[in-house]
Queue: 2 jobs
Job 1
Amino acid sequence: MAIIGVDEAGKGPVIGSMFVVAARVRAQEDIPDHVLDSKKLTPERREYIAQELMGLEFFSRGVEEVGIEEIDLPSSNMNVLTAEAHARAISRVVEEGDCIYLDAADVNPERFAERVLKGIDVEVEIISEHKADMNYPIVSAASILAKVIRDAHIIDLTETYGNVGSGYPSDAITRQFLEKYINDNGSLPDCARRSWKTSKDLLAKTGQKSIEDWR
């Protein structure tokens, strides 16, 4: 029996994919003491710790990407998508009897746990809590790894499109990038989530139509 911590990065941005990481070790004590919630660490520190984690004995991880195409489906629900991605990431590393710690991506942690369990084929114990990334080192580890992967994804997009900012709707650089792209090309870039309110608002501002408007 071992423990698995699961967290995601990129649920809320208007640009790019969401990534879920399931990190597995034998016990919480296997995680170094300086592993903290990713939001408290600089990108450089996250990268260093991610490499350290990957070098731990008996450490394994499962990674699941949820792309824009899936996010933008009319039938999509982000809470459900996130739970399903958690289950797929867990299934890459889980073994019978493992204890899984979830940073609940739903206002109802119990409902989130139930949705994740539906996608797991072996018997496990699940602990689903808000702020689990702050309370359990194994979830902090998953949080760091997910953020590092998401950061690399944004770097790849920057190499294609120029400076896209962080990808979050609150980021002025991200909004300026999207608005300029729409003005220059008459549409959103392929890296943008068309179903997001930010995208729809910017399309409306420039007089462009979204995919939904043409249906």
Job 2
Amino acid sequence: MPELILIILAAYLVGALPCGVILTRLSGAGDIRSSGSGNIGATNVYRVAGRKLGVLTLVCDALKGVLPVLLAAQWGHLPEPQVALVALAVFLGHCYPIYLGFKGGKGVATALGIFIVLSPLTVACLVAIFIALVAIWRYISLGSICAAAAAPLLIFWFERSTALVGATFFIAAIVIWRHRENISRLIGGTENRFRV
């Protein structure tokens, strides 16, 4: 049990690394939290600091999800319920990072990394949903919200794991909750459209 607590804590601290803030500061673009929407995620970095930094932020945030969960599942050989706890710790680290006063991102990229390890088939379906919705309506937030809503059903369909379904419901609920302002703007017709 003490080892599991240390693993979960380490996963949280990895997830809490604010990649968007670090990358924009290193590039000389300033503090991303004071620009655009103020969010530390890839979409805001893309809009404020450009495509390269936006993509790099996406990759780094996803890797934060991949590495701890992969190590727990493949190297640590932890049972599935414990792997689910590690996944939740990484995700919560990104959304509520101790390094930034618990004010983090919306969790989409880190959740993507988590599910790449837990259920690649689910990721394939979620990416298809996301791309289709963004291609049609040009709203990143809409694609993210709908993909999050579909995730628990897909995890249940492909994995049939109570632990993973429970963790996925929790992750999906937080992703949607953290998009509540976007939902209001979508309803009001004031949400920013994505432009390549």
